[in-house]
Amino acid sequence: MGHAYSYKCSNCSFEEYYKQGHGFLVKPQSYQEYMASNQKLFHYEIHNKIVTLAKRYDNLEIDATFQVYKCPRCNLLHNKVQVTLLEGGRLLHTTQFKCTRCRARLRLTNIHRLKRATCRACGKASFRRQELGNLLWKK
Ligand SMILES: [Zn+2]
Ligand SMILES: [Zn+2]
Predict the structure, then answer these.
(1) Looking at the 3D structure of the chain, how many domains does it have?
(2) I want to staple 93 with a disulfide (CB 3.0 to 4.6 A). Which of 41, 71, 85, 109 is the partner?
(3) 78-106 pLDDT, tens digit each
(4) Residue 25's domain spans which residues?
C-alpha cells in the first residue's frame, strides 16, 4: 500500500501531500484487468499506448504506481502516476513527464532521501518534509 508524505514550506507555510506506491486502482495489473476496470485511470496517451502494445504482445503487463518526480532545473516536486508496460519482465515502455513550469524532463526522485525542494507557492528552497506527516493512505 502507498504512503503519503507531507511537505511544508517554512517560508510561506504552503503545504502539499505526495503519494508514493500502489493504490486501490493504481497497481500492477494485466491488460484484461485494465480493460475490465476504469480505463480513464491514465492519461489518454498512455491508454492509447497500452491498446497498441496489447495488439502486439499477448501477455502485456501494466505496472502503475504513484511516484514523486523532481524537476532538475527548477527543483519543483511533481506527483505522477508512472505507468510501465512489460512483457515477461522485459520493459516495453515507461511514462516520461515534463515539468509544467519549465518543460524540462522530470527525474524520478527517492522521497525517502529527499529532504528539501523548491516551494511552488513562493519559489524559495524551503520546502521540507514534515517528519510526522507520513500517513498510510489507501485510495
Ligand atoms: Zn522545471
Ligand atoms: Zn513557500
Answers:
(1) 1
(2) 85
(3) 999 999 999 998 999 999 999 999 999 99
(4) 3-136
Nearest ligand to the C-alpha atom of residue 73: 1
CB contact at 8 A, 5 and 113: no
State how far the Cα of 77 lies from the Cα of 70, in Å rounded to an integer. Answer: 5
User: Which ligand minimizes its atom distance to the CA of 69?
Assistant: 1
Q: What SS3 class is residue 92?
A: strand
Q: Closest-lying ligand to the alpha carbon of 16?
A: 2
For residue 133, name the pLDDT band (cuts at 50, 70, 90). very low
**What pLDDT sits at residue 54?**
96
20 Cα: distance to centroid of ligand 1 (angstroms) = 20
Residue 99: its pLDDT value, please?
96
